[in-house]
Design a protein that fits this description.
9 strands; alpha+beta; about 140 residues
Length: about 140
């Protein structure tokens, strides 16, 4: 086993917000965080005893100022980063309320395939492929950094 695969994964709730036009929301990682400036789906770590949905509700309110509606379980992906091993729990969200506020001084962008913002966080790339498969999209899903 590699050293990376022996690390205990950190569970992370990830929101895949999809608007009425089928676009999805990406946010940039704020300054001071690992991979600052990379684009990802918003979310964050689960706290002790917290469910994925509860963590997602809390994180999206803390980071974006919105209150989400139902969070539909979609996929789970294990990603090994140099700094951590993370288990990403993706939830699709089609309804939310409140005005978007970038509370961590991050940026946001509604995107379709191929994604125009760059660079894209490595853990986001599989999600773009899942969208491509679901939507019958052919070609590159994003630009290289």
């Amino acid at each position: 086993m590699s050293a990376a695969s022996q690390r205990t994964p950190v569970d992370v709730a990830v929101g895949v917000l999809i608007d009425a036009d089928g676009r999805f929301l990406l946010t940039s990682r704020p300054e001071g965080k690992v991979y600052a400036g990379y684009w990802e789906f918003p979310g964050g770590k689960l706290e002790a005893g917290e469910t994925v949905e509860a963590a997602l509700r809390r994180e999206l309110h803390e980071e974006l100022g919105i209150t989400i509606g139902p969070a539909e379980p979609w996929k789970v992906e294990l990603v090994d980063y140099p700094h951590a091993r993370v288990r990403l729990h993706f939830r699709k969200v089609y309804r939310w309320s409140g005005a978007f506020e970038m509370r961590e001084r991050q940026s946001m962008a509604w995107q379709a395939l191929p994604v125009e913002v760059a660079p894209v966080l490595p853990g986001t790339v599989p999600v773009l492929r899942w969208f491509a498969d679901e939507r019958g999209f052919q070609g590159a899903t994003h630009r290289d950094a």
